[in-house]
TrEMBL record:
<feature type="transmembrane region" description="Helical">
    <location>
        <begin position="92"/>
        <end position="112"/>
    </location>
</feature>
<feature type="transmembrane region" description="Helical">
    <location>
        <begin position="254"/>
        <end position="271"/>
    </location>
</feature>
<feature type="transmembrane region" description="Helical">
    <location>
        <begin position="52"/>
        <end position="71"/>
    </location>
</feature>
<dbReference type="GO" id="GO:0008360">
    <property type="term" value="P:regulation of cell shape"/>
</dbReference>
<dbReference type="Pfam" id="PF02673">
    <property type="entry name" value="BacA"/>
</dbReference>
<keyword id="KW-0472">Membrane</keyword>
<dbReference type="GO" id="GO:0050380">
    <property type="term" value="F:undecaprenyl-diphosphatase activity"/>
</dbReference>
<dbReference type="GO" id="GO:0005886">
    <property type="term" value="C:plasma membrane"/>
</dbReference>
<keyword id="KW-0378">Hydrolase</keyword>
<protein>
    <recommendedName>
        <fullName>Undecaprenyl-diphosphatase</fullName>
        <ecNumber>3.6.1.27</ecNumber>
    </recommendedName>
</protein>
<dbReference type="GO" id="GO:0071555">
    <property type="term" value="P:cell wall organization"/>
</dbReference>
<feature type="transmembrane region" description="Helical">
    <location>
        <begin position="192"/>
        <end position="212"/>
    </location>
</feature>
<keyword id="KW-0133">Cell shape</keyword>
<comment type="function">
    <text>Catalyzes the dephosphorylation of undecaprenyl diphosphate (UPP). Confers resistance to bacitracin.</text>
</comment>
<keyword id="KW-0961">Cell wall biogenesis/degradation</keyword>
<dbReference type="GO" id="GO:0046677">
    <property type="term" value="P:response to antibiotic"/>
</dbReference>
<keyword id="KW-1133">Transmembrane helix</keyword>
Length: 272
């Protein structure tokens, strides 16, 4: 019986690691799906540290995919700071805008994270927020902006940052909110996608640092292997999901994610 319970525990964590990892990059809200699945199957993740760990797994996948952009930004950012070389200014500005866009979600998350989680941690509420996500995706489905990296402004960064803070609500997709905001202000799809996922890096790192004590406490409670398997699953699932989403964005097929959010949102609101 003990071995059966241990096997079920492993399956549970691998399953949630896959769901979190696969849904993190695409605009359908990973946190909202975790809420729905926990209610649907009667499975509960006992603490927030698990979600933080699998988010960190997703972060590693994002770092792998965008490694060349990250290296270039760091190198050129330092070149501009030290040598003031004009051709490095665009990347320096891009880094600055990422920092600016990080602030709203960081401040709101620190001040109101617990209240937001308690208020919106219900499937019916997530159903409503998923429908809202679907509407936003439907609005931008045919938009084709003209602003590239060099045309971004501090105002754009603040708008995208505020959109990311709204995504603290389960059911509001982080990638969806930031991409929608970026495209509504006229950015190209490629720029919107890159800014959104590079913006994910400081937010994920900040969350991990703030909650690292909880993570160590959980892994000390006989959860090392389940957490490790979920972590590895999240890395793999996020990597392939993000690669797939990049192709979807290039073809402009966001309407299918809108349909998905409508369907799942209505099911969650009516049946759960």
């Amino acid at each position: 019986m003990a071995s059966l319970d241990s096997f079920e525990l492993l399956v549970k964590y691998i399953f949630f690691g896959f769901v979190q990892g696969f849904t993190e990059p695409i605009p359908i809200s990973s946190s909202g799906h975790l809420v729905i699945l926990q209610d649907l199957f009667g499975l509960k993740m006992e603490n927030l540290s698990f979600e933080i760990l699998v988010n960190f797994g997703s972060l590693i996948a994002v770092l792998i995919i965008y490694r060349n952009d990250i290296i270039r930004l760091i190198q050129n950012g330092l070149r501009f700071m030290v040598k003031k070389e004009a051709d490095a200014k665009e990347d320096f500005n891009f880094i600055f805008y990422l920092i600016v866009a990080t602030i709203p979600a960081g401040v709101i998350g620190i001040l109101f994270e617990d209240q937001i989680a308690e208020t919106f941690d219900k499937s019916k509420t997530v159903g409503i927020t998923l429908i809202i996500t679907g509407i936003a995706l439907w609005i931008i489905r045919n938009l084709r902006g003209k602003k590239g990296d060099s045309a971004l402004t501090i105002k754009d960064a603040i708008i995208i940052g505020l959109a990311q803070s709204v995504a603290l609500i389960p059911g509001i997709s982080r990638s969806g909110a930031t991409i929608v905001a970026a495209m509504l202000i006229g950015t190209k799809q490629e720029t919107a996608l890159r800014f959104s996922f590079l913006l994910y890096i400081p937010v994920s790192l900040g969350t991990l640092l703030l909650k690292i004590d909880d993570l160590f406490e959980s892994t000390a409670q006989n959860l090392v292997i389940p957490y490790l398997l979920a972590f590895m699953t999240a890395i793999i699932a996020t990597y392939f999901s993000l690669r797939w989403f990049m192709h979807i964005m290039a073809r402009g097929n966001l309407k299918y994610f809108a349909f998905y959010c409508f369907i799942v949102g209505f099911i969650a609101f009516i049946l759960l």
